[in-house]
Every structure is written in structure tokens, then in C-alpha cells.
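Objective 1b of the project was to move from sequence-level analysis to a structural picture of ligand recognition. The entry below was assembled by the postdoctoral researcher (A.K.) and checked by the PI before modelling. It contains the amino acid sequence of the target and the SMILES of the bound compound, zinc ion.
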Amino acid sequence: MGSSERKTRKILVTSALPYANGPLHLGHIAGAYLPADIYVRYQRLKGRDVIYICGSDEHGVPITVSADQEGISPQEVVDRYHRMNKEAFESLGISFDHYSRTSLPVHHETAQSFFTALFQKGDLKVKESEQFYSPRSRRFLPDRYVEGICPHCRYDKARGDQCDHCGKWLEPADLINPRSKMDGEIPELRKTVHWYLPMGQFADSWKKWFESRQWKDNVRNYCRGWYEEGLGDRPITRDLHWGVPVPLDDEKARGKVLYVWFDAPIGYISATREWADKVGDSDRWKSYWKDPETFLVHFIGKDNIVFHAILFPMILMEVGGYILPEAIPANEYLTIEGRKISTSQNYAIWLKDYLEKFPADPLRYTLAANAPETKDTDFSWSQFQSRNNDELADILGNFVNRSLTFTHRFFKGRVPEPGKLDEVDQAMLKAIQETRDDLGACFEQFEVRRGTKTLMDLCRKANKYFNDKAPWETRKTRPETCAATLYVCLQVSRALSVLMSPVLPGAAEKLLRVLGGEKPLSWDEAGTELLRPGSRLRKPEILFQKIDDEVIQREIESLAAIAGQDRENKKNR
Ligand SMILES: [Zn+2]
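Corresponding predicted holo structure:
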């Protein structure tokens, strides 16, 4: 999968469908969305045929539980979070070509066609099992909503599918004294029928394909673990009224929907279909999903590896005619101030809250510089502050600002004629091209962290160049040297407006406006003479505002209060 090979290929990028049962937090963004957006923005600048697809995952039991608790319909729950998350993504500059939702008819139809194809091939097994049933609400209860005593270790909060204390897998009937987690009701066990995907049958062909690919270590290790444990039969239907109905004309299928892990990845395909309709060429989705020339990349967090590296490819292979993922850059987790994110305890930084107080770019930069690519990483407010103040403002922002201010003061706001460039000037211009190529290689290989450092290193170099050249002195003694220095600084600034735009799209756009540059930008042009001598520049704008200690302190304290509250609760339990 060399980068030269990819140049001519179409690229289809997906990010894990966020669940429409709650707001987005920074852990989501660092895992599956920001790295994908940076990759896609870079590929667009390279002029490649790339589309970026995502949408809300709107099915599953937790949505029906939320709806019941609030006394509203599941549709109202997903409408609320779909809108909220879509807006938050937009404010952060996540540039999907299409953001769909799995409650739409196009998705129901697509997901059903996959089930039907497997069913007609005779792949699916029908099995009877016992499930908890709530007589009061007259419906089956999902295993994870029933608690009882573990028959193995006597832990009293074991769930219907697993005991978190001893780690053993359980059958609902194993649980002693089962109780509904929602209202304490004693559930009954009832017989039910489900359709199963016999993963073991497909394991060998899957393994062959998997071993032929270059995967990240974490993806490889997770998958080997699952494979060695044995891939058994997995149910792909559920007793539930909210979801994609099982498309069978069969009494046994009544009141059942497709299991959410089965239908959600198919959501990438239905979202691409919806996109194709939107751009007025309804067959165009096939030119991505059904053309082996397409390079398919799934950006996900590590909790989704099994679905994207095993289950979804197995389904695609078995149904046939679809491309398979070539890269799955799964990220590890982000912790906040050294603690695990916990949505149930409200220990998280919610994207929406962040964006009400701060601009998008400093967050994008901080998360990119600290991306959890190979191990869990930590977000702290003080690190965020220093990334913003000491790097974005003091290095990048300062360089651009001093270059522009100097040009306005002493060259009437026009790009100076450079005259003869000396070795140091030439080396600075060459550094732009080297950075462009290094940075491109980082983005191509999904190494956002190293890329972000490469970008800031160019800004450091440029500041040093400005200092060493001391134009405030040469202005009086050697005006032609001073002109050459500012010419070079402005070329660096103009190149930065391209090179920084995948990570810092907001500031890049501002900078481009000030420099009088034009869109569309092209990656390969960075490092060429993009600003002609004599062209006029606008007044500089501050690209990055510094953030005060008190503001940061307030954020630290509010998180500490939530963490302290949680410790208090545990003590009193
Ligand atoms: Zn146990």
C-alpha cells in the first residue's frame, strides 16, 4: 500500500457512526473524527478523488431506554442528538461530504438487502434461546439491562450476558435473582427465536484476507485474539420494535429488528447512496463501493475494531461485489486530566461545551499533537493552554504576524522585490518543500502526531530565520537584504496557509485572506513562489488569541469537582 500506488486511486473514507443517544466528547473526536478529517483535507489538497462519509447510528436498545425514561419517542431522541452532533461537527470543521442517519428509508432498505442476500444464500442459522421478558412493559429486555447474582463468584451486579467481577460469560438463565436494572421488576424467561451469522464458517477465508493486509499492531493483535478464541455463531436479530425490521415474511420474524452491530457498518454504504442522490448521480456510490480501484479507510476507536476488521468484511465478502477495507487506523483512548472518560458520571469534556467557550483550531491542534495513535494519551487543560499560547500564538502566530506587520510598516504592504537570495534565504525556501513532503508522508501514513510536530518545526525554523536575519537592522544598512528576508518570510507564510490547513483550517483560511491568496489551494504548490513581488497584502489579523490562566483554572476546577463528587459517591456506597 505504497503512497505512489494510492495516487491514482479513488479514496473512500468513513468515520465510526456516532451513537445518537448522547452528545460528543473529546474522546470521540480524538479517536475517529479529527484524524479522518485531517487525512481527507490533505487528500483534497493533493487533488485526489476522495469522499468522506459518516452519519448518526440511530438504532439500538439504549435509545429506546432513553425514550422511555423521558416519556418521548425514540425518533425524538435521535432527532435531538443527530442535530446536536451534526452541528458540533460542523463547528469543529469536520468536513464530511455527507452526514447521514440510519433511521432513513435508504438505510433500512440497504441493510435489509444484506440480510436477505445472506438468508437466500442459506448462510443464516435459526436458533431458539431463552431471554428475559418484562411482563409489565410486555417486551423482551436486553441482557445488559438485567442484573443478578453471578453463579460463579456471587457478585451481585452481574449482567445477563456477563459478570464484570469474574469476567465469565453468562446465559440469562444462569443469573440468580434477576432484576430489571431500570425499575427493579422481576423478569420472566421466555423462549425466542433469532437468526445467527455462523462466523466460524467464514473464518478461514477471512483469515487469509486479513493476513494479506498491512494492519496497525493494535488491529492485528485484537483480531488475532478474537480469532484464536474461536468465532462462533453471533445473533444478528433482536426482539425490539425500534430498528430495521427483519425482512422475512415469517411469523417468527414479527417484532424483531436487525441487531445494531449488523446494520450500523452497512450505514456507510447507505450514507454513500444518499450522498450520490444528493449530488444528482444516484449510481455514483457504486463507483466507490464496487470498484476495486477504491482505497477504503475506516477511522475508528479501538472498541470498534472487531466490527470493522472482522464482522463487516466477513459480511461484505459473503454477500460479494463490494470492496474491503485496506486501512483501519484505529486509535487508542484519550483520558482527561489522567482519568478515564465516563459519560455516565459526566466526567468528560463535551464538544458542544468546549465550542461555546473556545475556537475550534486550538482543540484540533492539541488533539492532533497528542493523538492516541499507538497508546492511550491524556488531555489536560494546562497542556491545551501551552499548546495554544506557547506554540500556536508564540511561534506560528508570531512569525506570521511579525512578517506581515513589518511588510506593512516598511514596504507599504506589498511583497518586496527579492533581488538576490543568499544561501540562508535559499535554505529557508527549501525547508518549505522538505516540510511539505515530510508532512504529506505523515498524513498519508495516518501519523497525525508526527505531522503536527513537523509543521510546528517549520514555524520554529522560520522564527529563527527572522531573528538571524534581523531585518530591523538590515533595513537601515542593507535594504536589499531586508527586502529578500521579507520576501522569504511572506513565501513561508503563504505556504503555511496550505500546509497548516488540514490541522488548522480556520486559521489557514484567515491567513490566506490576509495574504490575498486564492482558492482552491493545492498541496504541491506549497514551496513555489505563490506570492508575486508587488502584490498587496491586507492588514494582519491575530490568528490565535492567548488563553488566560483564570480561564484554564476554571475548567480544571470544574472537572476536579466532578471527579471529587464521584469519589464521594463511591465512599458512601
Ligand atoms: Zn462472577
